[in-house]
Amino acid sequence: MTNCIHDHAEWGPGDQLGAGNRLTAESTLAALAMAKTGRVVDLSHVIENGAPRIEPNQTPYLITSSATSRNTLRYRAGLGATNEVGANLERMELTMHVGTHIDALGHFTIGDRMYGGYSADQTVGDWGLANLGVEQIPPIITRGVCLDLSDLDGGDPLPAGRAITADDVRRHCDGRSIELRPGDAVFINTGWGRLFMTDNATYVSGEPGIEEGAAHWLTEQGVLAIGADNMAVEVLPGTRHPEIMMPVHQHCLVEAGVYLVENLVLDELIAAGADAFCLVMLPVKFKGATGCPVRPVAIL
User: Fold this and answer.
1) Is 192 found in the same domain as 130?
2) In a structure prediction context, what are the per-residue pLDDT tens digits for the chain, which is 300 residues long?
């Protein structure tokens, strides 16, 4: 392994949990204690054919029937079954980054360098990731925080390329008396999510989102994850220099070990006025995958 230069993480070479190290029994119990009414708010999109995606990196979601009740009825009747037993099964093809999903720490590199001092040459193979795959992300039950920054410019929808700065985030938190704590999952509403499955072409053409300074400020607060109602969390196109691409992904995943959650649905949460809530999010343990679809829920 080669050490990651400018590694902002606390846990040293060889670590695969990243900010997941901040999840403890105490933080779990504190998050569960936030649930007062039992209302559950789903923060995820339906995964379906036609969901917005970026070509050619992301392939379409496809589902086909690999067995149907009609065929299995005949098959089992041939085996002697008399109770008309049918079953339906399917086969799916999808990128792990479709719909609402979480990025594993192995999703991005800085050159050959990966989180925890791992080398991409040694880690990334024909059969997925040898290290830093999504199976390393623990079950997440923690305090969620929702920051509605969609009205930063006076109530108009934020346009693509509108960078959300560290100052924007700090002022919003101060104005709402929100104190970020280590282990929080911070979800940012930009308003861009309104275009998901209503105007996919615009949705994938760019987006408002956090810039690198805001990402650094959030990771300095010790957050577990940063999510947004857009496809990449970070502002697209980037604003610092056009030749610097995806710096928020590089900082969060490679340097800080902080997970990213994309394509969130936050409207109902905002309507409920829930700045902070109990978050439950359970990544599926696909061995060697760079991420996976998730169904995060807020329990109010």
Assistant:
1) yes
2) 334 445 667 899 999 999 999 999 999 999 999 999 999 999 999 999 999 998 888 899 999 999 999 999 999 999 999 999 999 999 999 999 999 999 999 999 999 999 999 999 999 999 999 999 999 999 999 999 999 999 999 877 899 999 999 999 999 999 999 999 999 999 999 999 999 999 999 999 999 999 999 999 999 999 999 999 999 999 999 876 778 999 999 999 999 999 999 999 999 999 999 999 999 999 999 999 999 999 999 999
Q: Is position 169 within any domain? A: yes
Is the distance from CB of 162 to CB of 208 less than 8 angstroms? yes
Q: Look up residue 220 and give its amino acid.
A: E
Query: 175 lies in which domain range?
Result: 18-46+96-299
Q: What is the 3-state composition of the chain as percent helix, strand, coil, each rounded to the nearest 5?
A: 25, 20, 50
Q: Give the domain CATH number at 30.
A: 3.50.30.50
Backbone φ and ψ for 56, nearest 5 degrees, come out as -95, 5
Q: Do residues 215 and 264 both lie within one domain?
A: yes
User: Does pTM surpass 0.85?
Assistant: yes
